[in-house]
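Pair request: fold both.
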Amino acid sequence: MSEALRTRLNLLIATTIAFAFGVGLASVLDLTPVSIAADTDRDPGWVVGAPSRAAVTMEEGFSDVTRRVAPAVVTIYLTAEREVTEGRFPLGFEPPPGFQLPPGFELPPGYGPPSGDEPPAEDESPEADPPTLRDSWSGSGFIVSADGYVVTNNHVVAGAERIDIELHDGRVFEDVELVGRDPQTDVALLRLEADDIAVLPIGSSDATAVGEWVLAIGSPGFRAVSGPLLSSVTAGIVSAKGRNIRILRNRSPLAIEDFIQTDAVINRGNSGGPLVNAAGEVIGINTAILSTDGNYQGYGFAVPIELAREVVDDLIEFGEVRRALIGVSITDVDAADAAFYGLDRVGGAKIQTFSFDDSPARLAGLEGGDVIVGVAGQPVSGVSELQRRIRAFEPGETVELDVVRRATLERDRARVRLVGAEDDSPPRVASRPEAPEPTGDVLGLEVRDVADLAARERDRSGIDPGFTGVLVVEADARGAVGRAGITPQGALIVDINGEEVRTAGDYERIISVFEPGDAVSLQFSFRTRDGGWQNAFRSVVIPER
């Protein structure tokens, strides 16, 4: 491996996910749902851009689009009184091991690495109330209607007690209204009372292709240090679409991540600002970065404007987001799945479990292992796009899903009546096992017949008395299952290619016909953290010997 490649791999491995943003070091991501009184008119007055692309010349660069867009971009100042907690960094800002602050940079009071050995001050007692700090930070936003609606990120405004907005022309509006916010998409909506304001036209992230020019506009920096760099413009391209970096989903199971990736420079304070195309139309909200130190390293992410628009419309009409669900736990389709299901491309979302007994998807006849490849006639590339397409519908509406059945490998359609997120409940998992002795095979597994386990072993492992099947004892990392990145030790194999596995004999008979290059679908039952068991569907390809 070359030294350059090794360096790049080390960088990727060391990468930590951090918000990029107005929140700076003084804010913690808040996932508490917020409900605020709604306006009567749902439409804020969106200005939709023309479906054309402006030409970018070497002489003018992006000067024309910048002149038109910058007046609609705002800087947001936020303040709140917070407890000073020694030794804690906000979520997403924990520094990597060995990280040291640059010369001349100081953390806000109360923030820093834990020392653990400093005695309390003489005039303090262990029971004393923690000190408080009047904290301030900044972010960005953009005006989307003549009525004064301003779109930004949830993490920019979360926890703020006061919000002020400075326009591009220098006008400042104090204590502006928070209309509502949605932690699951990281979108928030503000409103200011102002006349003669610029409005940013809305474009389409769906119609934007990878490789197109984009601009990120915002006000990076810290007000407490030297003030934000107002209306800074950076240029780049759309690097990818439909990215899921799990920065939201790790904190909320209902989070929707369908980010636009860009290499336009984004830093703290840029969060909430617009990502615009060469025609000056906003296609996304600059939201997050991947970085080892919290600063820009080439990987920026923006919330697609289509998703943000749906959230904003709900906040205006209902004061909260009404999220529609089909009631499933899903994973992205990979190359092995595409081979097994006979898909013409690697795309779709595979059902793993149902969120609750009367899940809409289950009531519509869908089964675990089925792959959803389309919504209302529109293809879906993966989990993120499926979530976003479902988000376009309201609870109570019926949506038609295109699926490929695991049982028959045939395409089918299912009509699913959507429910609201408030009707959702945690998944209910069945119970089942744990480990012991082997038989080698083409899947690279060693398994044991569960029927051979003594009653005492069954009780200790939590296996239902009537259960039969095989238990994975070991997995060869070079085998078909190991190469797929699956760690199945201690898991049950429930079926293979839709055929039930009740005994080790069943297992050996089924796998005996497999040849190198065959695509195989396995249904495992994995132990969950709460001691139960949950089904999961994985596809693998038998490697060459």
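--- second member of the pair ---
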Amino acid sequence: MKKFLSLALALVMVLSLVACGGNNNPPAADDNKTPDTPPVEDNNTDAPETPDEPEDGVYTGPDWEAINAMDYEDACDTIYDFVLGEFGEYYAIAKEASGDERIAKMAIAEAKFLESGIFLPIQTQGGNYAMSRVVPRTSPTVLWGMDEYRYYTTIVTNELITVEDNNALKALWAEAEDAAAYFEAAKAYLAEHGYTLADTYVQTNPYNVNIWDTIATSYTSDAMFIAGTYDNLMEYDIKGIQQPCLATSYEVSADGTVYTFHIREGVKWVDQQGSEIGEVTADDWVASMEHLLDNTDALGYLLTVDEGCGLKNFDAYLAGEATFEDVGVKAIDDYTLEYTLEAPFPAFPTMLGYSIFAPMNRAFYRSQGGTFSAEGEEYTAGDYGKTPANIAYCGPYLITAHTAQNTTRYEANPTYWNADAVTMKTMVYSYNDGSDPMRSYNEAKAGTIAGAGFNASSMEIAKTEKPEGQDKTYLELYGYVSRGTGTTFAGWKNVNRASWNNFANDSIGVSSKRDNAEEIARTRDAMVNQHFRLALGMAFDKGSYNAQIVGEELKYNRLRNSYVPGTFQYLAEDVTVDINGTATTFPGGTSYGEILQAQLDADGVPAKVWDPQGDGGAGSGDGFDGWYNVDNAKAELELAIAELAQINVEVSAEKPIHIDYPFEAYSDTARNAANVVKQCIEGALDSKVIVDLVPFDKAEDFEASCYRFGAGNEGNYDLSTNSGWGPDYGDAQSYLDTVQSGAYMCKNFGLY
């Protein structure tokens, strides 16, 4: 549940250096063709005007003399506008939109961000081989909040699902109009192909629970255990569409700041034994907010103005400048709940799946000794949340047994308001600390658990072992690729570097090989040039790089080609937006990635960020390298060379541009990956760019150089692949906000 993540290279395997591939996965001939649609009357006001091209192709670059005379913030603003000004204009417009139009405009804005070349999406987590009895896409697929851990709709078979059938089911999911249609189609397909359905879902889990109070924790390792015990106001279904849950409906005020929810009547709170202790009412969310204000070290930042939705007077209350009565949550009556924001925040509904919006029964909390500082009491949670017996339940499951480092057992809640939708009558977490690398594989074969990912040990067995009576191995017959997560790790290009030494622990760490002002200035001029940055990105063989971390067989599986995952959001209805002067309609069900690809194609950028046939036909922006292309890299470099020549910067094999790439010298895996970066960029760009590998012998020095530095210009690199970002809520803004002018992740570009 944390946002800014450091990429820790896996050290479980040490692999020999793999040479860069050729022109891997070049876009198809038509991929980058501007649509042949007739122009429409230019009456759209929602797209910025295209910036004027320099007169007669003149390239001037930034005015460094003027920039050097500015204070730091103004200098960063000026460089940002030069490098990312077009993205900033489109993004400002996208943030003003709402609904499906907002999704489309966010994708268009991200296209402008990617076209700047300052950011190269590289990989996510996941992307490993696995075998399973779990029918794909039968639990929520959203990449944020807690809905992905609500397994009550999951379909599990008694037989392992073949990779062929797994892909066919994913294709059915992609074709289905809605969740109900997919459930019907999936069950019919399974019956036709000889599968039988189970009503128990057993999966391994490597975590221990620290607390059962979902409001008071920011750890996924806690929250995933609690998610099935309560419902939220709204819930995402398996097609990624938000549906009524404990709220039957809601309205938004005309100014976009007040959300009024109508609470479902007759929903019961019960204790661990299933005995009724009360009815769900609007006050349960008021009590929850009071409790959250006593636990702001958890996820309370999502309600602040700077980092979240800006709940009215939330910041003021924390600062001691307002009372709880001033905070923007009110129970109008038993079945009417109202949230008020400081300003419109269209992504607010996507936050409702997070634990911060979980209800809490006030009377049960007090019965456990809990108090509220908002009511003038000395705060204590008492026994609340200490064990599964110390929480109240209003969700699909009751926790009937829990033994630390053993099993956690869930049984269907007989009083659950939506009991007919519960397909898994029993759900079990079976603890596995990973000490036996073959345990999950063997248990999945035996049917003790529903499935298992293949690790290095089981992968080798699965390549050769065959199920009884089968000609194919376990890998060939059942091995499918697991889905990636929402976190995107990237290559960051520093356009405002001012540090060539690392000062971790008050001592000089690692120094750049560039030691004269002329070379520093030449690299700076090159790095702010869009075509030079694009050339670096298109010369970066992500597959060969990733092979050093996960192995040759898996090297493409977790590659990512955009900042926001292409499957992050889907249109609920048809929407028409402007793409380069053409009114373009995208039908309901269109993915974020497909719209992103459309804008890149219209701009003539030779990159593939969406594959409609990916992920077994469901469509994906992961699992291939859509940026690496040697010919395109050379072409971009030639454009950069021509522009840089106009400001008297020569770029040639005789006078190359040097860039610094840091790596962890204490890791053979990291060393091999760094050598791939050097080999691929220098080879693709004919040694007109030289990658100087900068080794770090200490982890603290490396992090201080590339991850835990303060101001942007303290980053000690020109190119770094050491960090990434995961989403806080279900809107592209959760990613793109981080790279708007002045935002936190801009420090990776050397700014702010």
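Observation on the second member. The longest strand covers residues 657-664.
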